[in-house]
Amino acid sequence: MNLLPISALALSCVLIAAGCAPGVKTIRSRSFDPSSVNRIAVTALSGPNPRAGQAIADSIVPDLMEMGFTVVERAQLEKLTAEQSLHLTGAVDPATLQEVGRLAGVQAILLGDFAGHVEKTAVRRIARARPRLRRPGRAVIAGVREDYMIDSLSLRLVSVSTGEVLISSTRRNSFPASELDSAIDGLMKSMRKALESDKR
After folding, report:
1. What's 47's domain CATH number?
2. How close are the terminal C-alpha atoms of the chain, in Å?
């Protein structure tokens, strides 16, 4: 997975693990003062399904607003980046971040990615018994069921001025795509806890 360059200061970070959803790891940079960032933009998550990446990005906007951030509309951000031929997928160089920050008037951008695989399972059924032969029914393969499994889901809030990862939340244990909403909720709750940890 491609990551943005992280400054030495960002390497000394706060790990928020207690009370998080299973498999979720959230880290906040010690240098990150949440009060210094109030306006952010959210990009579509990069992954094997662009539509899913857009849907995930849109679904977390209400959570970010509840955390106190002002969020720039994703369509507006995409229009700005398209007009300037800027790309916000994968590794983003600091110059691009700064330009996007200037154009959109934001202090940070939420980037993310997800990866997965298709899991195939043989579907079996019991064949009818044959009374005349006095044999019980037996299991036969009736088909193959395909389930999409998500192997990793990651969100990163990145400073547009420095390229530093301010806070990162990741879930790496594999889970069915049907549990995606629950997994996103877990990431957002963990991020909220990390942001509020210095208020205690």
Report:
1. 3.40.50.10070
2. 34
Residue 134 lies in a domain: no
pLDDT tens digits along 155-169: 999 999 999 999 999
Residues 9, 31 contacting (CB under 8 angstroms): yes
Task: Report yes or no on 29 lying in a domain.
Answer: yes
Q: Residue 190, Cβ neighbours under 10 Å: how many?
A: 24
Q: 């990446």: which residue's tokens?
A: 53
Boundaries of domain holding 19: 8-117+151-199
Q: Which is more confidently placed, 174 or 11?
A: 174
In a domain, 100, yes or no: yes
Q: Does residue 198 come out as left (phi exceeding 0), alpha (psi in the -120 to 50 range) or beta?
A: alpha
The number of domains in the chain is: 1
Q: How many CB atoms lie within 10 A of CB 72?
A: 20
**Sign (positive/negative) of CA torsion 81, 37, 185, 120?**
positive
pLDDT level of residue 134 (50, 70, 90 thresholds): low
DSSP for 83-147 reads HTT---SSS--HHHHHHHHHHHT-SEEEEEEEEEEEEEEEEEEEPPPBGGGTB---EEEEEEEEE
Range of lowest pLDDT (10-24, 45-59, 106-120) = 10-24
Residue 22's pLDDT is 66
Q: What is the pTM of this model?
A: 0.76
